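User: Structure with 6-O-alpha-D-glucopyranosyl-D-fructose, tokens only please.
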Amino acid sequence: MANQWWQSAVVYQVYPRSFQDSNGDGIGDLPGITQRLDYIKQLGADVIWLNPIYRSPGVDNGYDISDYYDINPEFGTMADFDQLLATAHAKGLKIMMDIVVNHSSNQNKWFTASAKSKDNPYADYYIWRDPVDGHAPNNWGGFFGGSVWKYVASRDQYYLHSFAVEQPDLNWDNPQLRQAVYDMMNFWVNKGVDGFRLDVINLISKPASFADGQPEAGEPYAAIGGIIANGPHLHDYLQEMNQQVFAGHQLMTVGETPGATVADARQLASLQGQELNMVFEFEHMGLDGNPDPALGKWNDQPVRLVDLKQSLSKWQTGLQGAAWNSLYWNNHDQPRIVSRFGDERPVYRERSAKMLATLLHFLQGTPYIYEGEELGMTNAHFSQLADYQDLESLNAYHHFVDDEQVVQSDQMLGYLAHMSRDNARTPMQWDDSQNAGFSTATPWLAVNANYPRINTQLAQRTPGSILSYYQRLIKLRHQLPIMTTGDYRLLLPEDASVYAYMRHAGSQHLLVICNFTAATQTRHFAVLPADAHLLISNYDGDHRDVLRAYEAKVYQF
Ligand code: ISL
Ligand code: CA
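Assistant:
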């Protein structure tokens, strides 16, 4: 049995900038979210994860925080936040904050003070190094391209930034910085928030040595991700945070941990509860990356189903009984799943979206739904660079096309259309009115042109919609403990077209079968008793061994 509330919860992720604009400036905001809480409640979710809403210059859409104690004026005021939290709580919804403490904005007062001199109270809040032979201290390159080092004349030193230049990394080896972070988190706990999603939290402890790394062939810099993840004091710092912030509260905590392995997660998200409740792992999000490692995620090829099974199964069995999984297909950094692992063509979009939902929601762990996923929202299909806002996408284009000249412009635009983070960030599609009911003004990022046929109003009126299917899945999860806690066993590991697995709890079983192709497939499952009950399916009627295009079905016995 699940014994923690967050184990049987379902999370709905809201990207505030793109959810609902309430004051006609084209930017989603907190009052807009408050207006739409009933929609999330009707979906059946228990928790809302809010992407960062703090004061920020917005270089990385709020992941560059200039004041951790204040609200981004584009999103509203602290009173609007208090109202959102109180209204959510009154409806039985919890709110999880996104905490970004691997780095801050360079406009944070901690940083402006730190940059002034080597001897002020904030001097050691960031990671400063002397020049080496008049150059940057080493050859590390950041997540968003370029060197991780930026020179500041007032200190005659470089600071480290794993992401954009405007996102200096905080120095977690400084106990005062750590205390300042815990105090800030406690400010939000004392307001009554219900949990935290911790941005790139496995990067906070930097390695002892800052020696050069090995760049990929043809690249000027060594990618910092693999160098700084899982630093020597990561677990110490998280245990300290747990004691100083989480202990004694019924919070839900999830760490974003790019590059984390099963072994890492067993410690970070151990059921013993000394660090975090769960982590976001990225293995299944990296399977369709470019075969050329220098190009990283930029690719336009589909995932191989066998790889996907292998990866998800490794995490299911690897954490079973020891730690807790978070389950997701989408977030604000990933392309839309129906366009990525499903089939967005109009005849298959609904079936394949429901098939993917079935696969995910019957796994062990806590499911996360990203806004619009429950409608089967698709990739944006932007065709020119000017359509994009995301700095990762723009930097990558300039790096590979203009600077390195290793990718042709058309090819890179194809990669962006497949993988850009902006695919997830187009405004929520509420109805078929102008701007999809998101805003009365021109939205900050274009609305997907398909909103007249993909929107919540239409989904609510259409029996059998993807939305209604998500409602059913969530309801089932709340009713059937086996969905949360049952053991997982993969069937047909080498099958390139059908993903099938079982869940077991005592004498109860579930058999989950998903056809990942548009072709009819025939598979016989000897384990299935003749009188097994069909619990849910994305088709009417059941032909047992026959699987229609993107058919998904779950038997209970
Ligand atoms: O977005 C990615 C791949 O496209 C990742 O490399 C991402 O940068 C990484 O997972 C960290 O993401 C988080 O921190 C970033 C921020 O830009 C992302 O939106 C956030 O989810 C820096 O704060
Ligand atoms: Ca607004």
